[in-house]
Amino acid sequence: MIMERKWWHDKVAYQIYPKSFLDTNGDGIGDLRGIISKLDYLKELGIDIIWLSPIYKSPFVDQGYDIADYYAIAEEFGTMEEFDELLAEAKKRDMHLIMDLVINHCSDKHEWFQKALADPDGEYADYFYFRKGKNGNPPSNCRSYFGGSCWEPVPGTDKYYFHMFAKEQPDLNWENPKLLGELYNMINWWLDKGVSGFRIDAIINIGKNTTFPSYEPDGTDGLAGCWRMIDSMETVGKLLKDLKNNTFEKYNAFTVGEVFNIEENALEQFIGEDGHFSTIFDFSAHCLSDGEHGWYDAPPMEFKRWRKTITDAQLEAQKCGFKANIIENHDEPRGASRFLPKYAQTPAGTKMLGTVNLLLRGIPFIYQGQEIGMQNVIWDSIEEYDDISTKDQYRIAREAGLSDAQALEVCGRMSRDNARTPVQWSSEKNAGFSTGTPWLKVNTNYQAINVESQEKDADSVLHYYRRLVALRKSAEYKEVFTYGEFIPAYEDTDTVMAYYRADTEKRILVAANFGREAVELALDYAVKGVLLANQADLSVKKTHKTGELLKLESCEVVVLECECS
Is the pTM higher than 0.90? Predict the structure, then answer.
């Protein structure tokens, strides 16, 4: 497809979870000063866009996704002056900063909600969803994403307020024009300050069916998942169009939406030429781990299903725009532990997974620690977790009959806290993250997996990621990796994930063997050269002619430039 070119199309993004990135004052919590100190590290990795998870003032019930003041920096992270310094230093390095935008809900400590509680019939109550109960019960039977009813009593009244997440995160009323004006002004304030855009949290949830009906229960608690009350794409679309027109569009801002449950054939509305966002995350592979009732009955990751899911998502997206490709983020377990079989959870396997993901069509997002192959943690008890969602899933698993050990094993595979453990900078105490006591446990493998040791090893995952990003952004190949078509290949194999990136000038084959045994593939095009490989010296000739066999060892990936015809 022919599309208008945007400044973000050829960029590589990096997500920072500030609380776990780098602590410089010894309080066990990462801070803005730590991020500033690592900008050159990110620049060397090849990063263009830095996404900061929330750094606003917050009680941190849900790790900053409960915002108490949209205009203030949480003192745990630093000051507004330090944020301004971070912004300026990033710009000196031609890097863009994007903020996390959480506007489906706020904190119950926000001034708006406190005023609403003080006067449940006043104007601020209409900034939220205050509704009368029914016969002494909540207004509907919706279950929050974190478990339990979506409704919480308003003290001293017969009313309840609505929350799709934790009870400390009341949902904002997007039908209130005055509230929307407040949100638009806040967004434009940050854009005027110089941020380049936003990652927009849980945004599909703003389009609610505000008649708040009850639904057929889908659990033994008599409740139904709140996602069922998300209204039509038409309703959501009108809200998102107004949001864009009043904010992002004025600044040519880059926006990436966290969007689930898109109706069939609605993708173009979100990422098309005039879409609501610049891009949205592709969560299709991550959804393969969704259990029917929770984490405890999540199906195992199956290679062919994963391959087909990635392929289908690529083919769909390239009809209308770009998706943002991820292996992991702050809400997901580590990709190396999730998407790779045990035998492939090695540096070679980690490089292979990274190659397949970063060279897809779309905008790649690297999550902190991914570039060194950080893995899931071994958790010894539920008390070690911080994540509110993990604690709820542990409870669900236990109520379903799992033993403590079984429930812990489930949480160990799926917990968001796996991605939130401190970045492993060195083999020193606390992985070099903090001189104090880290807010969350450090992975015990930090002496084997850390930045400092990988800096010294030219064959490390870190050095490989640098070469991989450099290839994607290189003058010679940037065009094909940015705008080239995605064409699946070797789909009839049992263990190979392969595809071409092709335009009128170039054809690149990315081929990876996720199997335990070596495989041979008959080449469909003659090979001009090896651009990247995770297990072979680039000077080694892989093959040349059409029809010759390309041999891939277990966990081997190659990036080959082929003849165009």
Answer: yes
